[in-house]
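Here is one chain, start to finish.
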Amino acid sequence: MTRYVSTRGGVEPLTFKEAVMSGLARDGGLLMPERVPSAAGELERWRKLPYADLAFEVMRLFADDIGASDLRGLVEKSYGVFRHPEVTPTVPVGPVHVLELFHGPTLAFKDVALQFLGNLFEHILSEAGGFMNIVAATSGDTGSAAIHGVRGRGRMRIFVMHPRGRVSPVQELQMTTVTDANVHNLAVEGTFDDCQNIVKDLFNDLAFRDECGLGAVNSINWARVLAQIVYYFYAAFRVMDKTGADKVSFTVPTGNFGDVFAGYMACRMGLPVERLVLATNENDILARYFNTGEYRTGAVAATLSPSMDIQVASNFERYLYCLAEADPRQVKQWMGSLKSAGSITTPGACHGCMAAGRGDTAETLFMIREFWERHNYLLDPHSAVGVAVGARFLKESVPMICLATAHPAKFGEAILRATGQDLARHPLIDKLRGLPTRLETAPADTAAVAAIIRRAIAEG
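Its structure:
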């Protein structure tokens, strides 16, 4: 049976279901499988599978304490709500292949993982009984996707924190127009990093965590990463079949390192990837690290791609664990240095297939305009960052797959600024305007948020 261990080595190994319900390890680390299974011998068998069948095959390698029929049912239920029959289709656009990850309920790639995680939580809770209070931080898309994954469910309540005034108006609407009794939206007076730190503080307060039955939907939860591994395989298979290539490259816009880490895991499992290109905006701590070996925190800059306006990437610790060859002592030393000095330097930053670059606001606007005028294809600003950086790594013999992480309708102001036209529309967004909203403002203070959670629990 696959076991899950902490990157900091302070807890006993867990089963998959225990890891899912734990979220963050009780020693403050992140949970990782003890071994990464090889898929090299399965690639040909998997190559033609529909999305849900492929998801089942990939997930069963990591979730072997869930019965096959139950897992298949969870997968089919999760991806049956997507608007495209391929779930995550790949579209050739100019010199690249765009992997469209925005066909779920909230028009963002987070739906791929959070539809699955909501159903998975419900399945595990129904087996064991009990109630879960989910605490989440969002820089934009995670919040609405998590809310839509758990809204109205009887055994779950969710508290979503977003940085006040630092998400797009559409992203805020997608969260605050959900007024189900089990959904609580908190606008925190601070940055996403403040929200993320509050989540970690609450989980590291073990007495509070146990008292309130906390659960995690941020990408600190291993199930989030697992669900995202699938579309790397799916896209690579489809593009290799279309082009005749024997390997591909990916470019991934990222802020919190969860999506690109899923790609890194796919590489380690044996997917033939030449380059996995990490793309950041002006908040370029990750790009700087992969190009210099130094990870140094700084101030958060507000950009056109707010979901990437992050300085402390929570999933980076998982990469450090891999870089340290699964030595938790080394990880603890690095994380201690990061906390005390605000920086660390490691040897061999670009491990395996990794590469990185930064795309600023000017490049983002240029790429949105260029793709619209040349190819009649509209990119959202996050995806445009990925395309701009990926363009530096194009190689004629190796197709480049660019992850489109959100629908452009979520970022109408950026599209208008880039093209001069009001092009970014979608019926799911249009119908939100004018709906009632519910929102509570909170200071960037762990105790204040804990008090809000306790009050909501007491009120039932």
